[in-house]
Amino acid sequence: MGTNPVMEAILNTTSAPVAPASIYDFPELFRAVQIEAKGEIEAETEFLKQIFARHLPRPVRRVLDIACGDSPHGQVLAREGIEVLAIDRNPRMLDSGRHKAESLPGIRFYQRQIERFSLPAGNCDAAYFLSETFPVMLDNADILSHLRSVARALRKGGLYCIDIDRHDGIEAVGRRRRLWRTRQVRRGAVKLDVREFYRPLPWHIGAWIYELECRIHFPGRRPVLTRDLIPVRYTLPSQLEFAARASGVFRMIACYTDLSLTTPIEQCDRRWMGVLRRL
Fold first, then answer.
1. pLDDT > 70? residue 3
2. N or C, fewer C-beta in 10 Å, the chain?
3. Cα 213 from chain centroid?
4. Strand-pair partners of 273
5. Beta carbons of 100 and 86 less than 8 angstroms apart
């Protein structure tokens, strides 16, 4: 198999050593670092239900949660009687989800790569990809393979809701990483010093790298350093619509901004959600 030119560019640009630890290996701390506001998970889940009600003629009985982490949204839906299939690549996140959902028989976790996957159970009414993570797929072939994998898990006419950050300001590659912000986070007795950087890629890649560095101070232990390099592809609604058509299995039927059914795309403040329908 040949080298992916996009990933090769990332490796060439990110020459700094990467710490072996990842914040994704600490699910409870990850949730704190992500700056989730109180009630945000419930608000996002409620918005998904509004989209389902608007665009599906039938009740939603089974959903697919993609890049689920410990599936906080899936747990909300499972408590309401909806069956949830949840996939993620990180085994620790999945173990955390299984532990939290022990009393919820309607949710099942599977370790899968998001670019290409299959599931033993399909026929979902809807799928969703939240946390603005969809743009980590940089290669066109990976995006098309992903969409076709999702389509195989959906019933005809099913919905796929994709949450994406508003993207601004692609930059040419620089000599050094650029510090974005620093902050401190606490979860119980654990303190985290968080630094966030941007590592721009060459302009022709159409992406940049978000670097998340956390120094975790556990009581009575030496600090643990985590560093995660997260590629982010510049993604617009028109590009998602084009990818859906190119996949041959989806059409984009709606685009919503900032968890609102009425705010126009021109007034998008932070995020937007594309809604695809399975052909």
1. no
2. N
3. 18
4. 163, 256
5. no
Its pTM stands at 0.91
User: In whole angstroms, what is the distance from residue 228 CA to residue 241 CA?
Assistant: 29
Q: Cβ distance 24 to 228 under 8 Å?
A: yes
Around Cβ 51, how many Cβ atoms within 10 Å? Answer: 19
pLDDT digits (tens, 9 = 90+) for 168-203: 866 666 667 889 999 999 999 999 999 999 888 888
Alpha carbon distance 274, 160 (integer Å): 8
What are 158's two structure tokens? 């099913």
Q: What structural domains and CATH numbers belong to the chain?
A: 5-29+169-232 (no CATH), 40-166+235-278 (3.40.50.150)
State the greatest distance between any 2 C-alpha atoms of the chain, in Å, as a whole number: 56
Residue 248 DSSP label: T
Is the confidence at residue 53, as pLDDT, over 70? yes
What pLDDT shows up at residue 272?
Answer: 97
* Backbone torsion region of residue 39, taken as left when φ is above 0, otherwise alpha when ψ lies between -120 and 50, otherwise beta: left
Which of 30-44, 128-142, 234-248 is predicted with the least confidence, judged by mean pLDDT? 30-44
In angstroms, the CA 210 to CA 126 distance is 29
Calculate the alpha carbon distances from 23 to 109, 190, 211, 233 in Å. 20, 13, 11, 21
Q: Is the dihedral of CA 201, 203, 204, 207 positive or negative?
A: positive
Collapse the DSSP code of 134 into the 3-class scheme (helix H, G, I; strand E, B; otherwise coil) and give the result. Answer: helix
Looking up tokens 């009687």 gives 81
Closest C-alpha among 198, 205, 229, 206 to residue 9 = 205
